């Protein structure tokens, strides 16, 4: 079974084994819900589709009947250009699944390779400290590419 490489902003420890929904970001303003559904049906039968409109760039969620269809959508549709704008496709998750890092200590990490994801950055730092609570790579919304830097959060200052 082919599985997508985890990309973007997934919470550490996120389990994709039962997930049937994908998040779609960086959607061009001309894309309609009907077009979004049509594009994502190329990966499998769509159960539901929701488009959230923003002024410059919209986002949405696509629910599949089968988990394998969601995995295929991530593999085949991430960075696909619609109206000349690359969409970002990843597993959908509830925002409450991320640990609140408001009171944590954050460090800047620069000179990251373009293929480094949140998950990879978190895995690297958490291997050295169980106090690592989050890692985020900064992405360019227009190009869908990494900006080459990110931030890592820790539960205590001494570890930083």
From TrEMBL:
It holds the Pfam family RRM_1. GO terms for molecular function: mRNA binding. Transmembrane segments: none annotated. The keyword Membrane does not apply. Keywords: RNA-binding. SUPFAM superfamilies: RNA-binding domain, RBD. Residues 20-94, 105-160 form the RRM domain. InterPro entries: Nucleotide-bd_a/b_plait_sf, RBD_domain_sf, RBM42_RBP45_47-like, RRM_dom. The keyword RNA-binding applies. It comes from the Eukaryota. PANTHER family: OS07G0615400 PROTEIN, TRNA SELENOCYSTEINE 1-ASSOCIATED PROTEIN 1-RELATED-RELATED. This is RRM domain-containing protein.
């Amino acid at each position: 079974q082919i599985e997508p490489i985890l990309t973007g902003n997934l919470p550490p420890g996120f389990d994709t084994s039962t997930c049937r929904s994908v998040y779609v970001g960086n959607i061009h303003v001309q894309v309609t819900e009907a077009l979004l559904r049509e594009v994502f049906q190329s990966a499998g039968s769509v159960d539901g589709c929701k488009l959230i409109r923003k002024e410059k760039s919209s986002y949405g969620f696509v629910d599949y009947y089968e988990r394998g269809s969601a995995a295929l959508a991530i593999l085949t549709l991430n960075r696909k250009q619609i109206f000349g704008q690359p969409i970002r496709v990843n597993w959908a998750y509830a925002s409450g699944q991320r640990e609140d890092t408001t009171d944590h200590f954050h460090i800047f990490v620069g000179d990251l390779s373009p293929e480094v994801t949140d998950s990879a950055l978190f895995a690297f730092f958490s291997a050295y400290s169980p106090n690592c609570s989050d890692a985020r790579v900064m992405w360019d919304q227009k190009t869908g590419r990494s900006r080459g830097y990110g931030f890592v959060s820790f539960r205590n200052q001494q570890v930083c």
